[in-house]
Amino acid sequence: MSSRGADSVLVDLLKKMNRNMETISKKLDRLIELQRPSGGQGARPNISLPEDMPLDVTTLLSLPDHLRKSALGLATLREATATDLSKETGRVRAVESDYLNQLVSMGLVKKKRKGRDVYFYVET
Amino acid sequence: MGKSLAFHSYKGGTGKTSLVVNLGALFAKQGANVCLLDYDFRAPSLNVLFKAKPKFWLNDYLEEKCGIIDTLVDESDRLNLRGKLWVGFANPLLEALKDIMSKDRKWEVKALTKTLACKKEIFEKKKVDYLLFDTSPGAQYSSINALAGADLISLVMKADEFDLEGTKELSKGVYEALGRKSGIVLNKIPIEQIAAGGGAEKFGKQIESDMGLPLVGMIPCMCELMAYGGKIIYTIEKPEHTFTKSLSEIGETLKKMSVT
Q1: Which CATH superfamily does the domain covering B3-259 fall into?
Q2: What is the pTM of this model?
Q3: Which residues contact B190 (CB under 8 A, 6 or more apart)?
Q4: Tell me: the pLDDT tens digits for B39-50?
Q5: Interface-testing mutation among B1, B61, B62, B113, with chain A (most A C-beta atoms within 10 A)
């Protein structure tokens, strides 16, 4: 096999691996959603916030520890994907993705799509 | 990457500003690059000691009128320091104080993100080893923003019951919640109180046990500091003074705590 042919095979293989990783990641997200306990760290926080509540420090302090870490990390990065945030917090991407979406549903964080990536941000 | 240290207290008058200025000057004298930020927007005071007339205040940075680097004044040459000492000042004019008090929560979100962002920029652009925040006492927005941006929080307190109880609340409700490492600096401690507590070591252990936090250091009460507070930097002008020696020990402990 020529060098160019070998490169092409390698690129295809890497692309396939990337697609598989994304599929696994999405499945993990769904599994976390299905297996979330009724209490404990993974639980949806039962916090009712007024509409348009900004993510200021007093709101931050009222959040449960696991969400506060994500929110503070996102405030530091200002705009980030779940992967970016997982590097900041040291937790796995799927977990950060879940926590960020909880923050979105609480109205504290916004999200937007850029190409294939979903970016989360704190509106200022 | 450098380390950021915030100095905070439950009540006012515990000596945070003196500590921040003297520690910052000491670190720079030892050869480190230091940046001091006056985050006490309700009662700015660093401008008095440094006799500063900066082109931009930290208030201007939070209002997006300039970058954080534009606010910094280099005081190292004037003070003849080996390392660099940059200082960012809060605006002491009454209009600025009124303006800060009228801010809404949405503005505070911006202030939080800008505080977190400025830390990174200062470390990268100025190659700073230590970024020190002087804060307002109590649970003020600007203070908690600075605490959120700090790697290590020094709780400066006197050892009276009011300070002890209030500081415990702050420690649980804010420092622990933010997940920040923190330690206590006991300041203005009367010699009699230390003696009554069974000596410095026993007294310190008792405070650590009461507060559930490590003791960074202890500074005895000195009337002389009241007379010269805001006028001289002891760690530069009086290297043999008891206050300077106490601060040297505190500085070394903080350096160790900030890397572990």
Answers
A1: P-loop containing nucleotide triphosphate hydrolases (3.40.50.300)
A2: 0.81
A3: B220, B221
A4: 999 899 898 889
A5: B113
